[in-house]
Design goal:
This protein is mainly α and 188 residues long. It has a domain of 27 residues. 73% of the residues lie in helices and 3% in strands. The chain has five helices and two strands. Strands 1-2 form a two-stranded antiparallel sheet. A hairpin with a 6-residue loop joins strand 1 and strand 2. The radius of gyration is 43 Å and the shape is elongated. The chain starts with a helix and ends with a helix.
Length: 188
């Protein structure tokens, strides 16, 4: 092979390679454009679905759509619950006008200036109600216990007075001086 043949072979290969590169680049550009158009179609379908959902929400829909409506309702309720828990953990609330997040105690939105609704008084949840009932029971038990102790002390004082009256010895006077209760001795 002579030098001219080698040069022609290289030139032929480079034309083939550049043709393939151009073809590949054109294919990639077309695929990208097709992908953009497919996304526009998906967005349009999504918007049609959103509009149809808003239009038919709360109304009776065809059975083939009902499952989707139920799924959307369940997922929306779950999202709202999660958002509420996040706000509770972060001690924040969301502006009903613009959706901005702010401190729970704020009276006005820092973003749009809207007046925040007054917080509704919180009802006692089941746990709080049970806890309140438990506290009331504890208070009653403590009162009964204190009443029982007072009765027991009164009995001790009466016994001490009887003992002192019966015996004017030094032991009775010493017991009274150090406030010793006969019940304490019985317990030991």
């Amino acid at each position: 092979m002579d030098w001219n043949q080698i040069t022609q072979a290289i030139q032929g290969l480079s034309k083939d390679v550049s043709g393939k590169v151009k073809e590949t680049a054109d294919v990639l550009k077309l695929r990208q454009k097709a992908s953009v158009e497919k996304q526009r179609i998906r967005d349009a379908y999504e918007e049609i679905g959103r509009l149809y959902f808003k239009e038919c929400e709360g109304k009776e829909v065809a059975p083939e759509y009902q499952e989707f409506f139920d799924t959307i309702a369940e997922a929306s309720a779950a999202v709202a619950e999660f958002k509420s828990k996040i706000e509770e953990l972060r001690n924040t609330k969301t502006c009903p006008e613009c959706g901005a997040e702010m401190d729970k105690e704020a009276a006005f939105c820092a973003k749009c200036g809207a007046k925040m609704p007054e917080p509704e008084p919180e009802e006692k949840g089941e746990c709080e109600a049970v806890e309140a009932d438990f506290c009331e029971v504890e208070e009653c038990e403590a009162a009964e216990e204190a009443e029982g102790e007072a009765t027991e002390e009164a009995e001790c004082e009466a016994e001490a007075a009887d003992a002192k009256a019966a015996c004017e010895c030094e032991a009775a006077e010493e017991a009274e001086a150090v406030n010793v209760c006969c019940c304490d001795e019985k317990e030991e």
